[in-house]
Amino acid sequence: MDKKEQIDTLVDLLVRADNEGFVRNLLEDLFTYKEIGDLASRLNVALLLDNGVSYSEIEKQTGASATTIARVSKCLNHGAGGYQEAIRILKDKSVE
What we know:
Largest sheet: none
Strand content: under 5%
Order of helices and strands: HHHHHH
Distance between the termini: 40 Å
Radius of gyration: 15 Å
Protein name: YerC/YecD family TrpR-related protein
Organism: Phoenicibacter congonensis
GO molecular function: DNA-binding transcription factor activity; sequence-specific DNA binding
């Protein structure tokens, strides 16, 4: 498989996964604890940015660097739409 096919396989697996335990175990096998934390931190930064929190306040609250916050902001505003969809899903879940 080429790289695109490998990525497609991973995406397909994640889309089909309907078991929280499986997803947690897969993340733990695929990534280090720090990498999982970094992913979660970036999502948290996106949520804070979406709520209008300033860069300086996000730095204080999360410890994320200005560079990371700027990168997340760029993706949030001009990326592939993943952050926006994740935020929408999380907002929908909180309404339930």
